[in-house]
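Morning. Coffee machine broken again, so started the prediction first thing and wrote up yesterday's gels while waiting. Chain of 206 residues, entered below exactly as on the submission form.
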Amino acid sequence: MAVTDQTPPDELDARARRRRRFRHDAQAAALDLFTERGYEAVTMAEIAERLDVSERTLFRYFPSKESLLDPTHEQLVERLAGELAARPTSESAFVAVREALRAVGDEMDHDRASFVARMSLVEASPALQAHLLRRQSELEDAIAEVVAARTGLADVDDLRPRLFAAAAVAALRVAVQRWVASESDDELLTALEQALDLLAEGLGGL
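Came back before lunch.
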């Protein structure tokens, strides 16, 4: 039955929960198969078979095999953009970005085991490395847009918003790498704070 304006809220909630559960189960099944056999050796058809669904159904939720490793990425970009937009206009661009990254990092902190497994797969796959670079570019776009608006540097020829955004995403990437590789129980936010402190020494005046 199609969703309409008359669809009861509890039915909408139930459908949303089923979608979230399927996405979670699909990600877990894909991660298991990738870990067992290697990313390149696994097909979408085999993942669908593991889930006992059609390949068409799987593609409806995940447009590519790569997207099974970061099914929450779109939400991450949206969350970052939302956090940036919600920061007080009196804040500098650097402070606004720093606080938005901290909010996003706090959410990522609860998924360390999955991050470790995913990073291991990325390191072993050129295709996944290229995919990760594209995803990071999307994060940079979201940050650069807000920085340009806050600082009045919307000129497409001005390199500063893009450079600032690239540096901020690099700080997040390095913090995640250190967090994943750490043998201690340190939180991601600890590494992220250290990376942002170092970034502030060079770019904090923007």
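Residues 9-66 form a domain with the Arc Repressor Mutant, subunit A fold (CATH 1.10.10.60). Going to sketch it on the whiteboard this afternoon.
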